[in-house]
Amino acid sequence: FFIARRYRVAWGLFGVGALAFVASQVVHIPLNLGITALFRNGLIPAPQPEMAIAVNAVIAGTTAAICETPARLIAIRLLKERGRDWGSALMVGIGHGGIESILFVGLPVLLNFVIFLIARDQGAAAFGLQDSQVQQFWSAAWHLPLAGAVERITTIVLHILLTGLVWQAVRTRNFLWFGTAMLWHALTDSMVVLLSSLEVSIWTIEGVLAGMMLINLVALFALQRRYRNEAAMLVSA
Hints:
about 85% helix; mainly alpha; 8 helices
């Protein structure tokens, strides 16, 4: 709502970003399943046990980047003149990260809450659950759900920055920006998967993500300032 009002951009651009994410997952999910099957069937040599976590993190980060970054590129190129201003880049990025949060976090969390709420009143067996699972759900620390909210905020900021970098690549026809977006996406996702696979507390992970969000915000504002300076130079010329 803030971006739409501040930059006077159409809500349809949110839908463009959302569709770009969904389209990327049509490739991303089968790709990950295919790579897993290749490892499982021995068609790709399995890494050494001490390297398995790191290799898995790199693969997960890389596949996300090579699927989502081109999807952003296609979306922005299809917008043509409607996607030339900075506000359009922001809204497409929000749509990309927002629909991911809705589909992969918001709806599953809501569904789990409803299921465990009914299971608490009508019995765990109604949903094929055990009483201990229901008790564990309702006895969880109050702050744990907030970790998911923090993670979503940091992720959406990342999606906005990545979309901004791809938008800059299209606008300037300098595809070093595209490469930067792909590399940063791969590195960030790989680090998150690696930390999640290690015995690290959830709030330690969120702390790292919050620190990276600050870096992403600085990069985002620097990108915005660059655009404004270039636009001002064109006007004065």
